[in-house]
Design goal:
Elements (H helix, E strand, L loop, with lengths): L1 E5 L9 E4 L9 E11 L1 H8 L12 E2 L3 E9 L11 E5 L11 E5 L3 E3 L6 H5 L2 H14 L7 E4 L5 H12 L3 E6 L4 H7 L3 E4 L5 H4 L3 E6 L3 H7 L3 E9 L6 H6 L4 H20 L3 E4 L6 H12 L7 E6 L3 H9 L6 E5 L2
Parallel strand pairs: 9-10, 9-12, 10-11, 12-13, 13-14, 15-16
Antiparallel strand pairs: 1-2, 1-4, 3-5, 3-7, 3-16, 5-6, 6-8
Helix pairs in contact: 3-4
EC number: 1.3.1.86
GO molecular function, one term: crotonyl-CoA reductase activity
Pfam families: ADH_N, ADH_zinc_N_2
C-alpha cells in the first residue's frame, strides 16, 4: 500500500512516499480503507522528535492520527462493525498510520461516520473533537452559565471547542486575529479578543475554565483570569504527574514531567486553581456522542483546506504555519 513514512526524527524532515506492507490486523481491530486523513500539529511534533521519550515509536513510522474511510475486514472479536461500514476514528497511540491507503483501528476507538458529512469533513473531526470533549466535558465538567476562555479560537481545537462550550450553555471567550473574528463569532464566541492588539488579562476575569493551547507565558497569565476553584487545562504542556502515571514512559521521564510542571502546579494551588495537563486519547464511545452533535446540527465541521494525498508534506507544512482556520485534511479517495 502507498504511505508516507518517517525514517528518522528531524525538524521539518520530509516524510517519504513509500510502498509499505498492509497493516497486521489484531483480533479486536478493524481494517479501514482510508478515504481521508486529518493532519494535526501532533504529527509534526512527533516527526520533529518532541515526543520520542513519551511515545517511543519504532522507525520507520507511518504518521497520521485521524481517519475517515470504509471497513474492509474485521478481526474475529469485533462485533460492532462490518465490511462496508463508513467509519471515522482517532487511531490509538502506537497504532497510528492514517497517512496510508489502509490502517488498522481498534474497535473500541472507532465510530460510524456522521451522516450528512463528507469523508473529508469526518476526517477533520476525531482528534480535535475528542481533545475538546475530554477537556471541557470530562475534566472541566463545564456547566450552563459558566465562563470559559478557549485560546486560539480559529484553530482546529478552538473551532470545535467554542461550539461545544456554547452547546453546553457556557459563555465563551476566545483569542484570534481580527481577520478571523467573524468566524469565531459565527461559531458562538461571545467575547472575541484580538491577540495582536489586546491582552486577554485586561479583558477577562472570574473565568471558571481556561483551555490553554499556547506557550508557557500564556499559561502563566491564564492563572490570573480564573476565579478561585477554577480549572486550568493545558493541551500544550507541561505534563503533570497524573499524565506521567498513565504514560508508559520510563521512570526518569516521569520524574522530569513532575519537575517541569511543579512551578505552575504550585502557583495554581496558591491561587486556589486546579491545573491539569491533557494528552487526548482515542475513544469510540465519546466519538459516538460527538457524532450526535454533528447529526443534529448542533456543531459543524470547519475545514480550511483539502490537499491531495501526494501533497501530504505540503499539508503538514501548512498546519505548522498556524494560519489554518479549522482543520487541514488529505484526500485519498
Amino acid at each position: 500500500m502507498k504511505a508516507f513514512v518517517l525514517d528518522r526524527y528531524g525538524k521539518k524532515a520530509a516524510l517519504r512516499p513509500a510502498d509499505m506492507p498492509m497493516p497486521t490486523l489484531r483480533d479486536d481491530e478493524v481494517l479501514v480503507e482510508v478515504h481521508a486523513a486529518g493532519v494535526n500539529l501532533l504529527d509534526a511534533k512527533i516527526r520533529d522528535g518532541e515526543f520520542k521519550l513519551i511515545l517511543p515509536y519504532r522507525l520507520p513510522l507511518v504518521l497520521g492520527h485521524d481517519v475517515a474511510g470504509v471497513v474492509t475486514r474485521i478481526g474475529p472479536r469485533v462485533r460492532q462493525f462490518k465490511p462496508g461500514d463508513e467509519v471515522y476514528a482517532r487511531a490509538d497511540d502506537f497504532r497510528i498510520g492514517t497517512f496510508a491507503e489502509f490502517v488498522a483501528v481498534k474497535e473500541a476507538s472507532l465510530a460510524l461516520k456522521p451522516q450528512g458529512l463528507t469523508m473529508e469533513e469526518a476526517a477533520s473531526i476525531p482528534l480535535v473533537a475528542l481533545t475538546a470533549w475530554q477537556a471541557l466535558v470530562e475534566k472541566a465538567g463545564l456547566k450552563k452559565g459558566q465562563k470559559v476562555f478557549i485560546q486560539a479560537g480559529s484553530g482546529g481545537v478552538g473551532t470545535f471547542a467554542i461550539q461545544l462550550a456554547k452547546h453546553l450553555g457556557a459563555t465563551v471567550a476566545t483569542t484570534t486575529s481580527a481577520a478571523n473574528a467573524a468566524l469565531v463569532k459565527s461559531l458562538g464566541a461571545d467575547v472575541v479578543i484580538d491577540y495582536r492588539t489586546q491582552d486577554f488579562e485586561d479583558v477577562l476575569s472570574d473565568c471558571d475554565v481556561v483551555l490553554n493551547s499556547q506557550d508557557g507565558k500564556t499559561l502563566e497569565k491564564s492563572l490570573h483570569v480564573l476565579k478561585r476553584g477554577g480549572k486550568l487545562i493545558s493541551i500544550s504542556g507541561p505534563p503533570d504527574p497524573e499524565f506521567g502515571k498513565q504514560s508508559s514512559a520510563p521512570g526518569f521521564v516521569k520524574l522530569v514531567m513532575r519537575l517541569l510542571s511543579s512551578g505552575i502546579r504550585r502557583r495554581a494551588k496558591s491561587r486556589g486553581v486546579d491545573f491539569s495537563f491533557l494528552f487526548m486519547r482515542a475513544n469510540g464511545s465519546q466519538l459516538r456522542e460527538i457524532t450526535r452533535l454533528f447529526e443534529t446540527g448542533a456543531i459543524r465541521p470547519v475545514v480550511d483546506r483539502v490537499f491531495p494525498f501526494g501533497s501530504t508534506n505540503e499539508a503538514l507544512a501548512y498546519v505548522e504555519t498556524g494560519r489554518a482556520k479549522g482543520k487541514v485534511v488529505v484526500k485519498l479517495k
